């Protein structure tokens, strides 16, 4: 990989991806989630945005970042959550001079990430084949809804539609025979997020290969592929049996009891993972005989007889307050938990002890708080070097580093090629 000078100030610990330069032509969530992860690990990420509007998610609000005087800024929280540690360069890639700038920046990069429709970048001479002819070491990761091949390759792909088409909504939500049953999406864009993480893993593997061989490669990431892969045990269940699983609400297809129960004053999660844990629960519940009942003595039997067991469990859980159950079960190491809203999540002492929020100074506000990275590396820790950038905030800086003069930068700005 190429070596690039770090632009961060001060003597900070080394990061695993220091020296890796990423040219980010992606927008919305899957691509930016990937490049933010790379940036958190030390990569220098240059985010290319269209002049005038930038990444679509800059306008996906409210909520917006509050300025220091309490007014809404132009920066949507959605954008802020996926774009820290990047520099923004606003370039019009629809014009020849803008395309030339992208080729110049790509020649100085190790990785290019894009999520244009299949074939769009080829119209500009910015497709992987064109760029890799000039820069054979370049790793190009394309993220689309359906991939570069197949009958759906030209379709636009959105997380919501992918959750439906890829089977996730067929196993998410309450059972069809119960009140509230029917298809339900997951509350966060998991197809986008999983695709961003799989793309990150693939890029790291491709960088390892490029470092060893001097050869770049293309990575073809599709939201639908990722959605199918992340069905995990449910996909395996179908392939083993030929029977498509259905929605089970808060229950588990392969483990019982592993679901939500209602205590006398609220809900809790009971997640019994083995027979010893079930026996401990039965003791706490005052029904030790359940653990020796042939219908319930092992997990396979409990799964087969869930319709008998679950109402019995529900009846006894309903007799005591939630915290009484949680305290008693945690004391004997039976997995259980509360169901928190986000205010409760960020107030939780464990979440706070793990430092899962980070404060950053933003050009428009000194009050920016973001969800922190969950990656805890002992020798090469995540660093929060830059807040999410303003549109085109670093255009002049990055182009000057690429060798353009102040005069040329001013000319490109005057004719609308850059912002």
TrEMBL record:
Keyword flag Zinc: no
Highest taxon, organism lineage:
Bacteria
Asked whether the UniProt record includes Ribonucleoprotein among its keywords, one would answer: no
Which of UniProt's keywords are assigned here? Answer: Transferase
Q: This protein is called what?
A: CaiB/BaiF CoA-transferase family protein
Q: Organism source for this protein? A: Roseateles aquae
Species lineage, top-down? Answer: Bacteria, Pseudomonadati, Pseudomonadota, Betaproteobacteria, Burkholderiales
């Amino acid at each position: 990989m190429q070596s690039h000078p770090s632009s961060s100030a001060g003597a900070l610990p080394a990061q695993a991806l220091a020296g890796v330069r990423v040219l980010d032509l992606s927008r919305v969530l899957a691509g930016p989630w990937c490049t933010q992860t790379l940036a958190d690990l030390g990569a220098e990420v240059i985010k290319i945005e269209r002049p005038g509007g930038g990444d679509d998610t800059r306008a996906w609000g409210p909520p917006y970042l509050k300025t220091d005087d309490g007014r809404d800024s132009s920066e949507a929280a959605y954008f802020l959550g996926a774009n820290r540690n990047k520099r923004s360069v606003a370039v019009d890639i629809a014009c020849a001079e803008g395309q030339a700038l992208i080729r110049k920046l790509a020649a100085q990069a190790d990785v290019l990430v894009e999520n244009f429709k299949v074939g769009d970048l080829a119209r500009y001479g910015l497709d992987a084949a064109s760029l890799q002819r000039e820069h054979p070491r370049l790793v190009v990761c394309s993220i689309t809804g359906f991939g570069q091949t197949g009958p759906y390759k030209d379709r636009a792909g959105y997380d919501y539609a992918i959750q439906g088409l890829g089977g996730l909504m067929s196993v998410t939500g309450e059972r069809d025979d119960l009140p509230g049953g029917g298809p339900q999406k997951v509350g966060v864009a998991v197809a986008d997020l999983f695709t961003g993480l799989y793309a990150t893993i693939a890029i790291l593997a491709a960088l390892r290969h490029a470092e060893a061989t001097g050869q770049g490669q293309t990575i073809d990431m599709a939201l639908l592929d990722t959605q199918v892969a992340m069905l995990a045990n449910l996909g395996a269940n179908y392939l083993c049996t030929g029977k498509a699983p259905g929605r089970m609400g808060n229950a588990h297809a392969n483990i019982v009891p592993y679901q939500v129960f209602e205590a006398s004053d609220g809900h809790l999660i009971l997640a019994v993972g083995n027979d010893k844990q079930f026996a401990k629960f039965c003791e706490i519940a005052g029904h030790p005989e359940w653990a020796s009942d042939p219908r319930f003595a092992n997990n396979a039997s409990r799964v087969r007889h869930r319709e008998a067991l679950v109402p019995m469990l529900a009846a006894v859980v309903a007799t005591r307050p939630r915290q009484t159950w949680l305290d008693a079960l945690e004391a004997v190491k039976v997995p259980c938990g509360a169901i928190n809203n986000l205010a409760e999540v960020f107030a939780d002492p464990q979440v706070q002890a793990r430092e899962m929020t980070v404060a950053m100074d933003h050009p428009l506000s000194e009050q920016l708080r973001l969800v922190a990275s969950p990656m805890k590396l002992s020798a090469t820790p995540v660093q929060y070097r830059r807040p999410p950038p303003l549109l085109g905030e670093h255009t002049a800086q990055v182009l000057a580093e690429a060798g353009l003069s102040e005069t040329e930068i001013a000319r490109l700005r005057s004719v609308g090629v850059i912002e």
